Amino acid sequence: MRKFEKEIEQITASHGCTLYDYADLKGLATGELANFHRGISFVFQMEPWVMKQLAQGPTDAYSVLYGQVNLRIDALTAEVVRALNRTGHQAWALSSSTRSDPVNIRGDFQHKTAATRAGLGWVGKNCQLLTKPWGPWVRLGTVLTDAPLEPAEPIEKSLCGKCTKCIEACPAEALKGGSWRPGVERYVILDAWACDRYKKNNFHKFHGGYNCGICTQACPVGQKVFRK
Ligand code: B12
Ligand code: SF4
Ligand code: SF4
């Protein structure tokens, strides 16, 4: 393991993150970010007891956890960027949760793209990353870099099978039933405007309408942490 990889491992562990890997992002990051051919994808588990309580919508505990985990993600990714800079590499910490394009409801780059490319999971019918250990009960962080990191094998197939629990659970009918594969357009899986509107209209007191998680809670791959 090279010096900067060892340092990334140590920093990641010191922030309590136990699942991360490297992604080949050649051709995927565009515009100002086009020189970053590699990504480091970080997965933070959300507290299962909090996630279990989201069947009717967000709770105060979820709202607090959402903010705390975003701060932890941003602290970790900022430190990893500094470490890469010290070894002569350029890097960019993708914000944990910034909608930089409000018209199209998008961020600068997608954490889920980095995560599937890093082999950490697939995008489910709930339009979220499902990891094997914790399903979608996670939040994600990403560092983009030009450092020559050895990328993991990407995941390119959904493992949702015939399950439709998240689709049935969504009160906004925002989940469209489409299955993910790399490059599939978002609208096939999710009507982002329907989801956004529902949260703003019904859950405004939780981060101004940025929290919901009913479909996340309904996922059997997330719930399996209670069946161990
Ligand atoms: C804008 C936004 C929203 C919008 C739009 C959501 C969306 N899917 O686009 C709305 C308001 C609807 C929303 C809702 C929620 N969000 Co939100 N949101 C974002 C944000 C800030 C930007 C997303 C974006 O750019 N979307 C544009 C579209 C095109 O991309 P996408 O669906 O995110 O990802 C696509 C690509 O990744 C692609 N893809 C995957 N692998 C590959 C590989 C290749 C080669 C290619 C070409 C493409 C590709 O597949 C995806 C589907 O098409 C991200 C943070 C970020 N920068 O990623 C958080 C993020 C997606 N949100 C998150 C969460 C948790 C939520 C909510 C549960 C709300 C909450 N916190 O309570 C709901 C869930 C709604 C749902 N069912 O998906 C998490 C998801 C965690 C996870 N397990 O996946 C993120 C990643 C934040 C984080 N730091 O963890 N969100
Ligand atoms: S976050 Fe809520 S409104 Fe959005 S898709 Fe999931 S269940 Fe539906
Ligand atoms: S609830 Fe079922 S269909 Fe939805 S994301 Fe989870 S496994 Fe996939």
From TrEMBL:
Membrane recorded as keyword: no
Annotated ranges, domain 4Fe-4S ferredoxin-type: 151-180
Protein keywords: Iron, Iron-sulfur, Metal-binding
Pfam families: Fer4_16
Lineage: Bacteria, Deltaproteobacteria, Candidatus Desulfacyla
GO molecular-function terms, A-Z: iron-sulfur cluster binding; metal ion binding
UniProt-listed InterPro entries: 4Fe4S_Fe-S-bd (IPR017896), 4Fe4S_Fe_S_CS (IPR017900)
SUPFAM superfamilies: alpha-helical ferredoxin
Listed name of the protein: Epoxyqueuosine reductase
